[in-house]
Amino acid sequence: MRGGAYDHFFDVMEEVGFFEHIYDALPENFTAVFEIARILEDEECALSRVLQPVLSLTSSGTVMPPPESTQEVEVIIEEMEEFEAGLIRNPQHLPRIYNSQWLLPDQVFYNRLAKKELWVPYPRRPRYCAVDPDADDFRPDHRKQKLYILLDTSSSMAMKNRIHLAKAIVYYFLKRNMKELGFITLRTFDTKIGALHEARDTAGFQALISHVMRLHVLGNGTAMARAIQQAVGDINATDTLAGTELLIITDGACALEEQHIRGLLGDHIVINTIKIGRSHIVASESHIRDSINDEDNVQHAVIERLRTREAELRRKRDRTQSPQLRRRYDEQLQTARQELDRQVNAMTEEIIVGYGHELERLSNLYLQVDDVDLPGLFDIREEQYEEICALCAQVACEVDLCCSLDQLRKLALLIDHLDVLIQNTTNPALRKRFEELRDEITRRFTDCIELQMEKGGGTLLRSMTPADRHDLDFLLSSTSAPQFNIWRAFFWKLLARFRTFLGGPR
Asked: Looking at the domain assignment, is residue 400 inside a domain?
């Protein structure tokens, strides 16, 4: 299977933390993320081409150029001062202004504050020059990213594989950025805003990847505005996040107070968005009515003048005794009403068309990605079946030599992944062959445990209590799929206990 797509299957599973996690806490169909991420690595794939502008973002919002093949095999960091002076950007920076400015007369101080003419020290980033283009894990350079990711974990993300696609995008994005060791910050959001996670070194990136991959509890709403406000607050409150851009990954169409958000972002924070799916929202009648009557709206002033004109003409018509004047006022009143209706209809149409698209207008880069159909995306073929067979054969040989804890974990992961492939294989003949392969791996898995039990509790099962043995013996006696899932969950809990028995993860 050399050179195949599954050469690094178990490496990826270990990298994202699935080897060390108890089975019943893993997301459903979690290995589907591996397949989507593998497809994203193919730059010729249609989905990859759509996502490429975001996957290659730099902190300046431009597309990252390919690394130069002529670079030296060394890293040179240009020495620079730790801070550099800059004009104040927002009120949150006021406590950090240079101390001498506090001695200014009050009127001068407040005038400069209002004009944003106070001076603040801002952290200066080092410049990375020549690097090794062939390095696997560490390739810092001047394109180093500073990005703040907001990941939507609302319940609607569970529909149509959206959460799997979002995780695969984040995984692929973090893997690419791990080479440059950029500054990546992440929060999830649904009805609540998740905890802050940061990645600034290799260990941080690996921990963040593992955290994102294991997300499986989704909330019931999308607090987009609060999430953006929290992110902006984090960026403004942290010196090292100066210049950070926002990347929002969401399926939610939501209405935002556009001008308020623009005010929060200022001139120095940029939003980029990946919108998954085609969901949209419609403005309610009450919202349309409130928007038309909003005094801050320019068209509202026009409408109010027409309403005032209409009321004045009606009053004059009702007071006049002359039939000729009454007819004239009726004609003018009809004209005013027509113009008023035209203005209201035009404003209503503008509200309806623009409603729910505020995030699109706020985004410097906005990518609309359709929901993915996993069977169509995976496009499982004979070659993939052969690669999976080779991987299963390799693990089977290792199990025959030594039925270790690691080998059993590999068998369990293979069974889960085969289930994902079976669910997303449209070819009946190929699906049947995958089912036969899964049954074979399941039998080998079961035989390995039974062999350990026949040996009187070998190394693997020494930590089992009599009750555990009784439960395991009962679960192994059933060959039905539901019972298999139950005892597999039991087995993963047993592995966790076994690691504790040995003094930690193996």
From this structure: yes
If one counts the domains in the chain, the total is: 4
Which residue(s) pair with 219 in the sheet? Answer: 154
Contact 13, 31 (CB under 8 A): yes
Q: Is 119 helix (H, G, I), strand (E, B) or coil?
A: strand
Examine the domain organization and report whether 313 and 452 are in the same domain.
Answer: no
pTM for the structure as a whole: 0.68
Does residue 137 sit within a domain?
no
Do 342 and 6 contact (CB within 8 A), yes or no? no
What does the pLDDT profile of the chain (506 residues) look like in tens digits? 334 667 778 888 877 766 655 444 567 777 888 888 888 887 788 888 888 887 766 544 444 444 444 444 344 444 444 566 778 877 777 888 888 888 888 888 888 888 788 888 876 554 444 444 444 444 444 445 688 999 999 988 988 889 999 998 998 888 877 776 678 999 999 989 999 999 988 888 888 988 888 887 678 878 999 999 999 999 988 877 777 889 999 998 788 988 899 999 988 899 999 999 988 788 888 878 888 877 666 677 888 888 888 899 888 888 888 888 888 888 998 998 898 888 888 888 887 878 888 998 999 899 999 888 888 788 778 888 898 999 999 988 888 887 776 777 788 788 888 988 998 888 899 999 999 999 898 888 877 776 766 655 455 555 555 555 554 454 444 434 444 454 455 555 555 544 444 444 43
> Does some domain include residue 363?
no
Give 179's contacts (C-beta < 8 A, 6+ positions apart). 135, 136, 137, 138, 139
Residue 113 sits in the same domain as residue 230: no
Written as one letter, the residue type at 180 is E
